[in-house]
Structure formats: structure tokens, C-alpha cells
Write a structure and sequence with these properties.
The complex is a heterotrimer of chains A (279), B (275) and C (367).
Chain A lengths: L1 H7 L7 H28 L3 H9 L1 H34 L5 H7 L2 H4 L2 H11 L5 H8 L8 H26 L2 H9 L4 H30 L2 H7 L9 H10 L4 H29 L5
Chain B lengths: L1 H28 L4 H9 L1 H34 L5 H9 L6 H12 L6 H6 L8 H27 L2 H8 L4 H30 L2 H7 L9 H10 L3 H29 L15
Chain C lengths: L1 E10 L4 E11 L4 E5 L6 H9 L6 E6 L2 E2 L5 H4 L1 E4 L11 H10 L9 H14 L15 H13 L5 E5 L7 H18 L2 E6 L2 H7 L2 E6 L2 E6 L1 H6 L4 H6 L4 E7 L3 E4 L2 E4 L7 E8 L4 E3 L10 E11 L2 E8 L7 E5 L1 H6 L7 E6 L2 E3 L8 E5 L3
Parallel strand pairs in C: 3-8, 3-9, 6-7, 7-8
Antiparallel strand pairs in C: 1-2, 1-4, 4-5, 9-10, 11-14, 12-13, 13-21, 14-20, 15-19, 16-17, 16-19, 17-18, 20-21
Helix pairs in contact in C: 3-4, 3-5, 4-5
The chains are: A mainly alpha (279), B mainly alpha (275), C alpha+beta (367).
Chain lengths: 279, 275, 367
């Protein structure tokens, strides 16, 4: 009896049972159950059927397009993000605070509106599309357009990851480096970059994950030409719309998750490796 | 020298990436005059979409506040087996494509889904109806509030709650008088993030809703329908509403960051960070 | 009154043992220090008594009644955290009033009475002028007073303080110690406070409970714990010391031709470790040289307020550097200079047959 009472009192602060119940309910209903449905659905597909769908040329090109575009966009965001974060933290200029507040604009704007706007801006008749056309560059209905949309959508991730780390860097560190004879460039490459790299990779991974699955902002500008500018999420949407397409949709979804998982795992390893000094 | 170059490049980059789309939406919205603008927004279909979006967003926020408070309390105040696993599950929605999310819920609640038939017998429809839209929107916005609250509550520790306990306070009154006042700004911040995402969710909603015009078309779906039907200026007119909400959330967010983030730094003399 | 019997506590599913079979009792009205190095389990023990943790086994009695089945709210003990855990969004008044306001409605005092009571408490801790301030606007000492007033609001019989002076500046600390002592006496509380500072425990407590690695080492008055340490750990923890290695023969040791003895029978040993407190080494004047046990040169002088520490290097019989404490008046009387050589005598040495036993004292039989 005494044991029982002690076990029940294991947690001193109240609310463990209630909150555990709430969380198990919501996580179960909203996350575990749907994922279980997907995996159960996939296990019903025979292996040869699975391979057939996976090797389908349209599926392959869609997956290739999605992942290559997401990686390119995330890389662009890595560099642009570090630059923008550096400028916003280190320099004071007119409009700095406005720009700082607007960094999160791509998160706040609905993706469909973003996609529509970018598509119209870069269309042949759009403000920028015409300009680019005159120098022979086409953005709409090409991979360039997809990358552009993904750069827009993933842009805040790296900036917002790097910014606080940069702001936290003590002024004394810079003064110490300078007193030891480092010039501005050496200070950046040897002190700043190693410090912000883990955060930058965190932002990179987030942008990558977002880019792989992104749909709303891409479909407007991509033109969705099969084999050319059709992304994997769109292909899933098309297959779901067809009566008999669920199996195919499930396979593509599973493949996307597996590849994304591997990429994020690699990102994690990379991040840990750059974080060696924090162990 | 390098500094001026860097600032210039950054400003031009941000002008093209951020400012130009804002300007473009506003100009295109009123492209054919103010009268058509008012008409595009004031017509029946748009009003219906607005109301549906507000309903979905409001319910989503309420559910996410419950999940956020409950989960953050659980994870930051207790240690238990499987905590790391639970934390991973909470983060999961960030890395799943919205389209896949929509598909998952169709697998569950579609006509041939696990529960679709069963619920259909009782006259309950979830897929291709408003409940389905709410479910996917909650899924997509699941991490926003809870992720904002967990680090905040962890940083604040348990001392204040335990003190309240020793002074005789009970569960609800501790939460209400001690915990909530300490996290209210963080909660609001999370709500703002959640609101922006919930209003603008497109991929998941477009799959689960079936896009039935006049019934399950939220604002973003309505905009897509207008755009696809070559109602170009109308599409941008409706978009301008969402743009205004987006800019308003940014404003509130900046204000929150500006006014409450420094205050959370207060702890005790010994742990105050040197800046 | 607090009564603790055979308390065991471990974390991480029994892998880390925090407390092992701890027994003690604190009589009503005493002010007792729970002393130990960090990681000794003293804070855990305090939290167990408050009900903030649960013991794996053992019994806790508060005011003569078993406490385990009581929740923390029912125990009615005043608990003050190391960093005070003031409710940062409430002003001082509301912080102190909290414990009264959260009482069930049928026990809750009227608004006016709460007002009056809080006022009294603020006066008691001498901060009535700060009632409207927020915690972030207070100094460390003021925060501590608020935390105490808040804990006292529920009229506890028992007050538990976790490192009450740990977060304070040295000069404030001294003042607050005296004040806390007075408060304790006036309120007729039973107070238990945790500290890692042996000086603080000595200054303030009626009795000291010394813990190490979850095990009780000694419970005694400050005087006894210092004069009669129960074992080697207690001896080492309570002050600085010098060590000498010497062979033991016939229960006696020799330094030069001086013999130090004990009346206890001790087995011969090639190298016993002997401990000398710095104040048991005495600096002698040149005309007392006949009673000197050894000569040493002064290698360093550290001024430490009321005492002066000398670092000396013996030039005969002994080797190494030793610490000696002398009074400022001795320092001036002997004209102590760096590098100069002085005669010293050893008043007593302590020897531990095993680390678990009390020491045996060796003294010289001369004079």
C-alpha cells in the first residue's frame, strides 16, 4: 500500500496525467494515426508493384527535380542568408529595422499568393520577366522558376538561425582578435564563420526540408510540364485526384520521406561535425 | 568600402525578393480601379471564403493553444520515459510535405479510408468537408506554439511553481497565476506564427477539401480558382487581404520581439548574461 | 521538530545514489545547518523534507506527525530557494500575499486582513517601503527578505532555506546572517538551512549536520564538530591543515630530537600521515628558542583581515611548505619579514588510524 502511494506521487508538480492524456490523444490522432495509415497502405502494395512505380520515368524525374531544386535553393539561401544576417547585425543603415521585420515576410505570406505573385512578376509580360527575356533568360516553366520560388519560401530560415548567434558574439571577442593582430577578413573567416556555421546548417536543413515538400508557391511558376517542371508533391496531388492513383501517391510519398530523412540525417552529421567545439 | 558594397548588395537583394512582391500585389489588386476591387472582395463567394478561413483559423488556434500549453508543461516540467521520442513527433509536421499531409488524412477519412465508411454511417463527413480542413491545418501548424513555449518554460525552470506549491497553491491556480503570466508573450508570439500559417495553408487543404466551390474553398483556394479562371485582378484583390494580414502579423511580431524579449532575460544576479 | 529516519534516495532508476540511510532529528526551535560539499545530497534532503521530492524509502516526521502521505501544500513548511524564485510578474506585496490568497475560499482571510498581515510581514523583514517594487528592481539582499516574508506568510512552524546567502555579496552576507538569526529566535521557528560554506554554518547554526556523498558524517554543535571531528572527512572539510609523513614507533613520533606521544596504543608504521592545523604551529620569539621544535624561513605572507597567514619552509628536520596562522599583534611583535628565519613549535598533531575513526592527538611531553 505504501509503495502504491509513493508511486502515484512520483511527480511533485501537478498535471502530469492530464497533460500526458491530452498529448497522447492529439499526437496519436493527428500524427501517429495518419502516418500509420500511410505505412499500412504501402505494405499492401506488392514489392514488384512498388519497384515499378518507383522506376516510372515521370516519378523519377519529378523526384529528381524536387530534390535538386530544394538543394540548390537551400545552398543559395545558405550564402544569401549569412550575408543578410551579417549586414543586418553588424551595420546600421537607413531602413535596417524595416528590412529586419520584413525578413519573415515569406513565412507570413500564404504560399499560394507568393507563387501567384512570383509567377506574374517573372512572366513574359511581368515586370521582371520581360527584362530577363530581353537578355535571353526564361524563368517561368523552368527549374530556375522552381528554385526561385523555393529561395523565396526558405529565405528566412538561415537568416533567423544565424542572426542571434551573430548578435550574441561578444564585442570583446572581436576586440581580442584585433588586439592579436587579425584583420577584418581573418576575423570573419577564422572566428565568425566557425561560430555561426552550426546555426547556418540548422537553417539550411530547415530550408531544405521545407523546399522538398513545398507545393503552393511552386506550382504557379513551374508550369507543371511532366518530365520537365513537374515536382513530386504535384505528382502526388495528381495521383490522389485520379481514382486509382492512391498506390502510386503512397509510393511517391514514402520515397520522398525516405530521401528527405537521409538528407536530413546527413545534415545532422554535418552539423554535429561543425559543432565539435561545443562538446 | 567592403561594407558599403555588402550593404548595397543586401539591400538590392531584399528589394527584389521582398519589397517587389509586396508592391506588385498592391498595384495589381487595384489594377482595374477601386470599384472592381471592392466588388471582388465584397461578392458572395469571397465573403464565404473569408468566413470559412476565419473559422478554420480560429479553431486551429484554439486547438494548438491547448496542445501547446499542455505539451510544453509536460515536456518542460516533468521527466519521463519517451520524452525525446515525443519531442521528435512534435517536430515531425515540419518535414512532411503539405500535399502528403492532405493525402494522409484522405487515407484515414476518405470514402475508402480507415474511418471514412464508419463515420459516413453516422452521417459524419470529415474528408472533403470543413472538419478535414481543420484537421490538416492543425497538423501543419502543430509545432508552432509548442516549440515557442518549451524553451521558454525550460529556461524559467520549476522554482517558481514549486514555491507556489509550498505556499499552498494547487494545480490550476499555479498555472493561472504563476506559469501563464510568465509565458503569455511567448504564447502570443506562437499564436501569431500559427495564425499566419493557418490562414495561408494551401497544399494540404487543396487535397483534403476537394475544392468544392462555395463550400470548402478557403481564401487561398478561392484565389487559385480565380487565377485559374483568368480573373487576374480579382485574384490579386483577394490576395491583398491576405497580404494585409501577413504584414499585420509581421508588425505584431516585431513589436512582441521588441518589447518582451529583453525582459525575459531577467533571472537572478548571478545568471544575468553580460552583453 | 523534524525527524528523519533511514532515508534513501536515488536518481536515474537507482543508478545514482543521492542519500544513503540518513537519520537525524532537529529539535524544536533550533537553527540547524545542513553542511556539505557540492554533490553531497544536502539540497535533495531539504527538498525531501519540503515534499518537493519523494524518498525511495524511510520516514519523515514533521512536528511529530508522519509527513510522507501529506502533499507539499499540506506540510505547511516555508521553503526559500537559492535564487529566491520570486514571482517576477508580481510586485513585492503580491508576492508576499500569494500564500494567503491561494487558500481555499473558506479558509482565505478577508482582503483587509491580508493587507494588514502582509504589511506586518514587510515590516518584520524591514522592507515595507518596497511593497510596490518588482523583483527585478531589488538588490540581492532585498530579494532574500521578500522570499522570507513570502514563506512566513503561511505561518510555517518549519523554515527550510537552500543556500540562503549563496547569491549575495560578501558584505551583505554578514549582515543578513545576524538578521536571520534574530528573525529565527523571534518567530520561534525550527529552521534548517543548506550551505557549503563551513564558516557560515559555524557562525549561524546551533548545530551542524555534515553530509558527504549522501552519507551522514556528524551531527554536533559547531564547537564539537570542530574540536572533535568524527572522522578524517570532517577534519579535512572544516579547515585548512598541513600534513607530515613520519614513522611511528611505540605510539610516538620524533621530529628532530623532540618526541610527540599519545596515550593510545598504536601499531608501528613506516610512514603515518599526520595532520596539523595552521594555528597549532606557533611562531616563537628568538628568546623562546629553547622550546622551538624546528626553524623555518618565511616564504610568503598573506594578509587576511583579522588573521595573517604565513607560508614557511622548515630548514631542519622537516621538508615542504607549511601554513601557519598568527594574529596581527604577533605579526608586529615578531617583526615578521619575508625570507627571515624563525623558531616554531608544534602544539599538537592529529593522526587517523582509519579514515572512518576520530583522530588521535599527539602532543609533546616536554615542558
Amino acid at each position: 500500500m505504501a509503495r502504491l502511494i509513493q508511486n502515484r506521487q512520483r511527480h511533485i508538480l501537478p498535471g502530469f496525467g492530464l497533460n500526458m492524456g491530452v498529448m497522447l490523444f492529439f499526437v496519436g490522432l493527428l500524427i501517429v494515426l495518419p502516418l500509420a495509415a500511410l505505412f499500412m497502405h504501402t505494405t499492401n502494395i506488392s514489392w514488384s508493384k512498388f519497384v515499378d512505380i518507383a522506376q516510372d520515368e515521370r516519378v523519377q524525374s519529378a523526384l529528381k527535380l524536387s530534390f535538386s531544386s530544394a538543394i540548390i535553393a537551400a545552398l543559395i539561401n545558405l550564402f544569401a542568408g549569412i550575408m543578410v544576417a551579417w549586414v543586418l547585425v553588424r551595420y546600421d543603415f537607413i531602413g535596417r529595422r524595416l528590412f529586419d521585420s520584413l525578413i519573415d515576410f515569406p513565412f507570413a505570406l500564404p504560399t499560394a499568393v507568393a507563387g501567384m505573385t512570383l509567377a506574374s512578376l517573372y512572366d513574359h509580360n511581368g515586370w521582371l520577366g520581360g527584362l530577363l527575356k530581353s537578355v535571353g533568360v526564361q524563368v517561368v516553366q523552368t527549374q530556375a522558376g522552381i528554385v526561385l520560388a523555393l529561395v523565396f519560401i526558405g529565405f528566412p530560415f538561415v537568416v533567423r538561425s544565424v542572426q542571434p548567434v551573430l548578435a550574441d558574439m561578444n564585442q570583446e571577442i572581436e576586440q581580442a582578435a584585433k588586439s592579436l593582430g587579425a584583420n577584418g577578413r581573418q576575423f570573419f573567416w577564422r572566428i565568425v564563420l566557425p561560430t555561426i556555421l552550426p546555426a547556418a546548417f540548422t537553417g539550411f536543413s530547415l530550408a531544405l526540408a521545407r523546399g522538398i515538400g513545398e507545393y503552393g508557391s511552386v506550382i504557379f511558376i513551374a508550369g507543371n510540364i511532366p518530365y520537365v517542371s513537374e515536382i513530386a508533391p504535384l505528382l502526388i496531388a495528381i495521383r490522389v485526384d485520379e481514382e486509382s492513383g492512391y498506390e502510386s501517391a503512397a509510393v511517391i510519398a514514402i520515397l520522398m520521406m525516405i530521401i528527405a530523412f537521409i538528407l536530413l540525417l546527413l545534415g545532422n552529421v554535418l552539423q554535429r561535425w561543425t559543432r565539435f567545439y561545443q562538446k | 568600402m567592403g561594407r558599403i558594397l555588402l550593404i548595397t548588395v543586401t539591400v538590392i537583394f531584399l528589394l527584389f525578393l521582398l519589397i517587389m512582391p509586396i508592391a506588385f500585389i498592391m498595384i495589381e489588386a487595384v489594377g482595374s480601379g477601386l470599384q472592381p476591387y471592392a466588388q471582388a472582395i465584397g461578392n458572395q463567394a469571397t465573403l464565404h471564403a473569408i468566413l470559412l478561413t476565419i473559422l478554420v483559423t480560429a479553431v486551429t488556434i484554439v486547438i494548438n493553444i491547448i496542445i501547446g500549453l499542455s505539451g510544453a508543461w509536460l515536456i518542460s516540467k516533468f521527466s519521463f520515459r519517451g520524452k525525446a521520442f515525443l519531442t521528435t513527433l512534435i517536430e515531425l509536421p515540419f518535414s512532411i510535405s503539405p500535399v502528403v499531409v492532405g493525402f494522409l488524412f484522405i487515407l484515414l477519412f476518405g470514402y475508402n479510408g480507415w474511418f471514412g465508411k464508419l463515420l459516413d454511417n453516422y452521417g459524419i463527413q470529415i474528408a472533403f468537408a470543413v472538419p478535414g480542413i481543420i484537421l490538416v491545418t492543425v497538423f501543419v501548424t502543430f509545432p508552432f506554439i509548442i516549440r515557442e513555449l518549451i524553451p521558454l518554460m525550460q529556461e524559467q525552470g520549476k522554482d517558481e511553481e514549486e514555491t507556489a506549491l509550498s505556499l499552498g497553491a494547487r494545480g490550476w491556480s499555479i498555472f493561472w497565476h504563476i506559469t501563464l503570466p510568465n509565458i503569455k508573450w511567448g504564447l502570443l508570439y506562437g499564436v501569431v506564427l500559427c495564425l499566419a500559417r493557418a490562414m495561408g495553408e494551401f497544399g494540404a487543404v487543396s487535397i483534403i477539401s476537394g475544392n468544392i466551390q462555395g463550400e470548402t474553398d478557403t481564401l487561398t483556394l478561392h484565389i487559385k480558382n480565380l487565377y485559374d479562371g483568368y480573373y487576374y485582378n480579382e485574384a490579386f484583390a483577394v490576395s491583398s487581404l491576405l497580404l494585409i494580414v501577413a504584414l499585420a502579423t509581421l508588425l505584431i511580431k516585431s513589436f512582441l520581439e521588441w518589447s518582451f524579449k529583453p525582459k525575459t532575460k531577467y533571472k537572478t544576479k548571478t545568471t544575468l548574461k553580460k552583453t | 521538530m523534524i525527524n528523519i529516519e533511514r532515508i534513501n534516495k536515488s536518481f536515474d532508476h537507482g543508478r545514482i545514489r543521492i542519500l544513503e540511510d540518513v537519520n537525524f532529528s532537529v529539535p524544536k526551535g533550533q537553527l540547524v545547518a545542513l553542511l556539505g560539499p557540492s554533490g553531497s545530497g544536502k539540497t535533495t534532503l531539504l527538498r525531501l523534507i519540503a515534499g518537493l521530492e519523494n524518498a525511495d524509502s524511510g520516514t519523515i516526521e514533521l512536528e511529530g506527525k508522519p509527513a510522507q502521505s501529506k502533499t507539499i501544500q499540506q506540510r505547511q513548511v516555508g521553503f526559500v530557494f537559492q535564487h529566491y524564485a520570486l514571482f517576477r510578474h508580481m510586485n513585492v506585496f503580491n508576492n508576499v500575499a500569494f500564500g494567503l490568497r491561494v487558500k481555499p475560499w473558506f479558509k482565505r482571510p478577508k482582503r483587509k486582513i491580508i493587507q494588514q498581515k502582509v504589511q506586518e510581514l514587510l515590516e518584520l523583514v524591514q522592507i515595507n517601503e518596497l511593497a510596490k517594487r518588482y523583483p527585478s528592481q531589488l538588490s540581492g539582499g532585498q530579494r532574500q527578505r521578500v522570499a522570507l516574508a513570502r514563506a512566513l506568510a503561511i505561518e510555517p512552524k518549519i523554515l527550510l532555506l537552500d543556500e540562503p546567502f549563496g547569491a549575495l555579496d560578501a558584505n551583505v552576507r554578514q549582515e543578513l546572517r545576524i538578521w536571520l538569526r534574530k528573525l529565527h529566535d523571534r518567530m520561534q521557528l525550527t529552521t534548517l538551512f543548506v550551505t557549503h560554506d563551513q564558516q557560515e554554518a559555524m557562525d549561524l547554526a546551533d548545530r551542524i549536520i555534515l553530509l558527504q556523498k549522501g552519507k551522514l558524517q556528524q551531527i554536533d554543535t559547531p564547537e564539537n564538530i570542530y574540536e572533535k571531528p568524527a572522522n578524517l572527512f570532517v577534519y579535512q572539510f572544516l579547515g585548512s591543515f598541513n600534513t607530515i609523513r613520519l614513522p611511528v614507533n611505540n605510539s610516538s613520533i620524533k621530529i628532530g630530537h623532540h618526541v610527540f606521544q599519545t596515550d593510545r596504543q598504536i601499531a608501528n608504521a613506516d610512514m603515518g600521515i599526520f595532520y596539523i592545523r595552521p594555528y597549532h604551529l606557533r611562531l616563537l620569539s628568538q628568546n623562546q628558542a629553547t622550546t622551538a621544535h624546528f626553524y623555518a624561513s618565511v616564504q610568503g605572507i598573506l594578509f587576511n583581515g583579522s588573521i595573517i597567514k604565513l607560508q614557511i619552509q622548515p630548514i631542519d628536520y622537516l621538508s615542504g611548505i607549511y601554513e601557519v596562522t598568527i594574529s596581527p599583534s604577533d605579526y608586529h611583535a615578531h617583526h615578521v619579514k619575508n625570507g627571515a628565519i624563525y623558531p616554531f613549535s608544534i602544539q599538537e598533531l592529529a593522526f587517523f588510524i582509519t579514515p572512518q575513526q576520530p583522530p588521535i592527538t599527539f602532543k609533546t611531553s616536554e615542558s
